[in-house]
Amino acid sequence: MTRISTLFTLVFALFAFVQGAWADITLEGKGTADEPYLIKNLIDWNTFANLVNQEDHFFENEYVKLTNQIENITTSVGVGRSFKGTFDGGGHGLVLDFGEATFSRAPFGSVENATIKNVQVGAKASSEYSPFGEIIVEDNGSALVGVAKGTTRIENVQIWNNVGIRIKPSLGSTQRHLGGLVGYADYGSLTLKDVKFIGEFMPCKDENGIACEYNSVGGLVGEINKGVTLTLDNCIFRGNFLGTGDFHPISTYIGEVQTGAISINSDHSRATINGAYTGSEKASIPGEITVNEVVLNRTFTPGAFSTIVLPFSIELDKVSGAKFYGLSQMSYENGKWTAGATPVSGRLEADTPYLVNPSAATITFDGSVTLKTTENPVTTTNGWKFRGAYGRVNFGDSSETILGRAYGFVAKDTVINGTQWSVGQFAKAGSKAYIPPMRAYLVYNEASGSAKDAGGLGLGGAAALPDVIEVKIMDEQGKVTETVVLNPATGAISKDRWFDVQGRQLKAKPTIKGRYLHNGKIEVVK
Predict the structure, then answer these.
(1) Burial of residue 127, with CB atoms counted within 10 A of its CB: 0-12 exposed, 13-18 middle, 19 or more buried
(2) Ordered alpha helix ranges (H), 344-400
(3) For the segment 309-360, what is each residue's pLDDT rounded down to a tens digit?
(4) Nearest-angstrom CA–CA distance, 94 and 73
(5) Full-model pTM
(6) Is residue 235 pLDDT above 60, yes or no?
(7) Which of 121-130, 240-249, 307-316, 442-451 has the highest mean pLDDT?
(8) Element (H or E) spanning 5, and its range?
(9) Cα–Cα distance measured from residue 51 to residue 74, given in angstroms and rounded to the nearest whole number
(10) Contact, 404 vs 443, CB < 8 A?
(11) In this structure, what DSSP letter does residue 213 have?
(12) From CA 301, how far away is CA 18, in angstroms rounded?
């Protein structure tokens, strides 16, 4: 009896040892930020998946990096388990071959407190000439993450890799929680930054092959559970929904949204726009979200012109505290650029930059609105673009090519490099200039960036542009009621500054007779 017991113990111990050996990491690397585990080929990907799915190695607080494009992926990472580390695609692609559907079907079936970044996801093309590759999914399926839990961040991800992805539900599935990037966000927070989906959602059919309606299907996210905080930053859905039923980029959302300067309550009772937002995140609402009310937390100086862009449309009779003007003309006469602004009537339009003349310290909006942002809110006239900004714009950034051609309002009197600048003016922005979100600025001849100006005037490009631009504020009949000088986010014109009629700054009060611009007003020197 003792011998049998001892033999059983030895066999069990050996079995336990072998089981433990299977869980050893067989990927190259150490799992640190500097030396991540490397995924070089399909074998490595399957090993990675097996470690999470079968060996309970969740890569918590560890790093995994892709070094090559991986083709013909049939295995999901996070089946019955969750990946809990950081996956860096290194700019490479994952090409899926999901011909059979399973629950939470996605490259990452389930993740928790994970980061996925810098990766493209595609699917095996159905034919040599097809612009789409097809994947078949069931509930909680997507082209990237099936179920997201905890603090999940998805950044710099494109669902497209030579061909678009065509998401097709399996026969008889309930078609719930299907999304372009995430099927279902369960709890915690979900951040999507710099992501794009290009593809199609195919019609769904029941087990008898009869067309049915989708349930909680979204171009970016299928469903977000109550209490989940959603953060969106520069997210784009560029695809088609070919099925029936409700469809939005964010299909069903019962959590709180925080995107740049905009926050939306979980019950959609209120949206708040933070006019003092100082972060770098750009507000991005790829789908339509209707809220009961919107609050603009921004303090204005009554009588001092400023700029504004709003992510919603609203009737003017529901707005109080300001008068709004659209940029209606940019004219060049006698060597001088002049802008014209006319009052808005009837309705403020979403994604449209305006000049605003506040009559109170706050602007209020009455009633419900539908929020949505676009990539580039802009109006164009005679070679100039009046651009709205949903995120902070730093004119001196290397990513911007508008330095020397951009003009914007100063928010308050300030001293920059020893020079006094005043509110209510508009001038050329310097390299240290910036504007906060929900404002607007002028850009000259932005499309070409060449020396040739609008109308073939041949002024020599940005270097020859004036330091300030006069703006004529007109009434409904087109009569000029006042003149202001638009100035940059860096600051505008000091109270003792003189400019000639071409907008060139003078060092002192001129002694030659003529008309000049002095502190935003035209003066005649005799």
Answers:
(1) exposed
(2) none
(3) 999 999 999 999 999 999 888 888 777 778 888 999 999 999 999 989 899 9
(4) 7
(5) 0.55
(6) yes
(7) 307-316
(8) helix 2-22
(9) 16
(10) no
(11) B
(12) 74
